[in-house]
Amino acid sequence: MGLQMLVNAILLGGLYALMGIGFSLQWGISGIINLSYGAMVMLGSYISLEFFNFFHIDPFISMIMSGAILFVLGAVIYRGLLQPFLKGGIVFTLILTFAIRLIIENIILKVWSADYRTIRLTYAGSNFQFGDAYVPLIKFLSFIVAGIIIYLTYLFMMKTKTGKGIQAVALDKEGAQAVGIHVEKMYMINFALGTALAGLTGSLWASIYSFSPHLIGIIVGKVFIIAILGGLGNIWGAAAGGLLLGFAEVAGATFLGSQWQEAIGMVIMVIVLLWRPYGLMGKKFFG
Amino acid sequence: MEENNIILKIKSLSKYFGALKAVDDVSFEVKKGEIVGLIGPNGAGKTTVTNLVNGTYFKTTGKVFFKNSDVSDLKPYQIARMGLTRTYQVVKPLMGMTVEENVLVGSLFGRGNRSRDMNNATKRAREILKLVGLEKIKDSSVSGITLPDLKKMEFARVLAMEPEVVFLDEVMAGLNPTEVEEASVLVKKVRKEKDLTIVYIEHIMKAVMGISDRIVVLHHGKKIVEGTPQKVINDQAVIEAYLGKRYAKEVNNEG
Amino acid sequence: MLNNKKINIFLLIIALGVFIFLPRFLSGYWVRVITTIFMYAVIAQGMNLMSGYMGYLPFGNAMFFGIGAYATAIGMSKGLPFLLVVPLAAITAILFSILLGLPVLRLRGHYFAIATIGMSGAILSVVQNATEITGGAMGTTLPIIDKAPGVVYNYFYLAMLALMVISSLSLHFIIKSKFGFGIRSIKANEEAANSMGINTTYHKVIAWAISALFTSIAGALYAYWMSFIGPDEVFDVMIAVNTIVIMLIGGAGSILGPIIGAFIIELLAEVAWSAFLEYHLAVLGIIIIVIVIFVPKGMVGSISDFTKKRKLRAEKKVTI
Fold first, then answer.
1. C217: closest CA of chain B, how far (Å)
2. Which of B239, C19, C207, C293 is the most buried (most CB within 10 A)?
3. What domain count does chain C have?
4. Which residues, listed in sequence order, are joined to residue B21 by a DSSP beta bridge?
5. Which of C195, C201, C204 to mutate to test the interface with B (most CBs of B within 10 A)?
6. How many residue pairs bridge chain B and chain C with CB atoms within 8 Å of each other?
7. pLDDT tens digits along C245-281
8. ipTM of the complex
9. 161-200 in C: which are within 8 Å (CB) of B?
């Protein structure tokens, strides 16, 4: 049983890791606590649903569309609605992103209803063995893809001009401005990257689990925890946070019963906040 | 006796930020009623010393004694209430409040106000405002006033706390020569009236020479010289610190 | 608001009188709606003290509403009378605020807001799972009052009105006091406040305790009024969101702001609900965005700006 639990935890954690990074980047670097993040993840799921139902395209492929659409959406929302109000402080952006969540949630409800939806893949039931444990193929594929995307994001931040620009702005806004970096553009691209990651996560989620607008609030709760565990704006920290949350949930469900699965995350978050407010990694920026 | 006259004693004060030694084993004493100039080039550690003394920073090593009590581990608000106060190099006005309200806060929470009496505190705040010459703009919001007035207000705020020792952190920064002269006159006048002890922090030599009884010079976090203005201005190490070794050599060769 | 203090007081007393006699002219439905408005105004005042005046946004403040509600339900299930249970519920909430506040109030800005959301969520989970004490996710009941519905509605209407008036007045006097200056200094510049002799931790903890006090009593009244409460309902994140929107539209940092905001928001919600049932979420979202864009200082802030500008223009005319 131990190995199976471990496998489940890692697979879940990998997905959570991808999910948390986008939110963490938005909060840590763009300075926005994006309460609409859960709705954006779900949008990614529904986009893949439509591509599957109408064009029979596998979510692992349509995720590219989800990512692209959500990237553009994120850029538009940041530029049009959030950037003008950054000076209002945390209350303004918090409530604005909540308003955006309401609007997206309402659209989802109207178009797809509150029913849980699934994408039935032909290879949904396959799994392979790893020692004593069964590894579901789709979860494994999602894990791999999530890992690749995380690594690509890291490369983007470290190796590309834009990525380095974002890092520079995060470390020292005035300094970056002084060397000619367009600060607001960096914040916007960073935010859009976050929503794109949300969309990608949604597609992966849709390939494994069922989804509905009910999950929106729950996802926001989870990404909060992941971001705080990992330290805001820290890619590998968020990845670690996602894995940790995956472990905590699987362990909690196994030992305490499934109703404690959500509560465990909350309790861990509060403990971490009190003990190490800057995250387990200790610093507010990329390690 | 010598002991009773020393109001502030700083002993082996250090602050390391990781490998950076912002303040390194600094010690000096301040006698009651003195004006001690604390000078040094930018980055010498002057503001860090202030933050250490008033409790804003944790000390890596060292102790601070105020009126013969050990205040090394006290919080900033406790130290302020005992009468050891400071102003800020980059002024920190209480935004969203008027000039009078800013000074009133000092009057309410500083050493003078044992009771919670708003009336007395307001009266005292108004007296201080008149003393520094701000009574005309007392109802203005702090967001609309000039830099010299902001600095006067910060000074007034500290005075309203009825302090015994004030660390004035680069009060002259940003002022033109006339304003600097005005400020010096005001500080001297207030010092006499309120029987203050002042630690006068500056990085411009000239501003501090005419006003200080003694000077302490910091450089790279260490104390390099201490003494009367005359002694300090002629000290080799000080000239090197401010003007560089080459210039110091030239000065030496010439004179 | 208007510049003459005596006129202000006179107007407020008239408004109070109107409110006291209003139920005679309204249907039971509207009496309940206005009671809810009073309740939200109280919760908003609690948040107003923390966020509007002190600059620390307790996003999860609704947890005290839930604690007040559940403490009342549990207390009354043991046979205690309502009037005894309410202070006990308030004390419970205050204890929570102090225990949770001491470690968390040293975290600045964002972290404090998020920490309170986490706490709220954690308490919700505990309440949902501690079925033996709290009735679990199914909720719990309170004793039903043995009187005609109309009479009951009026009782709670007046009780909530009284709570709103008391909490608003208290806030008014607190802000004017020395403690109030300490609170405002923390928002203005916390580091400078510390150096001026203000014990900021003490101020923050006490402010949160006061906030918990008002909010929990509102929760206690709500529980007895509804006779049935469930965890999802009294720990609902929407309570916090509504409260923030109320503060935004009414104007934070003023005493009347939350009251005005509560009226505007609840009446808007009534309209949106009945007219746009299927789209009420989106409409609420759009309303929020419109408010933030066009009325960022809230009604009270905008009106006071307007009267200030008018006064300045009048003065300029005189001097020229």
1. 29
2. C207
3. 1
4. B16
5. C195
6. 73
7. 888 888 878 888 899 999 988 888 787 777 777 888 8
8. 0.87
9. 177-178, 181-182, 184-185, 187-189, 191-200
- Closest CA in chain B for residue C194: B77
Residues C125, A109: C-beta atoms closer than 8 Å: no
pTM of the entire predicted model? 0.83
Distance CA A62, CA A65 (A): 5
For residue C93, what are the contacts with CB-CB under 8 A and spacing of at least 6?
C64, C67, C68, C71, C212, C213, C215, C216, C219
CATH code at position B216: 3.40.50.300
CATH number at residue C241: 1.10.3470
Give A-chain residues touching C245 at CB under 8 angstroms. Answer: 95
Is C23 within 8 Å of chain B by CB?
no
pLDDT of residue C282: 87
A100 touches C287 (CB < 8 A): no
Confidence of residue C317 (pLDDT cuts 50, 70, 90): low
- Judging contacts by C-beta atoms under 8 Å, the chain B residues touching residue C178 are 108-109, 116, 118, 121
Q: Are A26 and A189 in contact (CB under 8 A)?
A: no
Task: Quote the Cα angle for A18-A24-A30, to 5°.
Answer: 130
Q: Is residue A256 part of a domain?
A: no
Distance from CA of C312 to the nearest CA of B (A): 13
Domain assignment of residue B145, given as a range: 93-163
On whether residue B84 sits in a domain, the answer given is no
- Can you tell me the mean pLDDT for B1-18? 82
Shortest Cα distance, chain B CAs vs residue C259, angstroms: 22
The residues of chain A scoring below 50 in pLDDT are 283-287
- What Rg value do the Cα atoms of chain C yield, rounded? 20
Domain containing C53: what range? 5-319
pLDDT at B249: 60
Residue B251 has pLDDT above 70, yes or no: no
The two structure tokens encoding residue C254: 């003023």
Considering the domain boundaries, does residue B54 fall inside one? yes
Instruction: Name chain B's partners: 3 or more CB pairs within 8 A.
Output: C
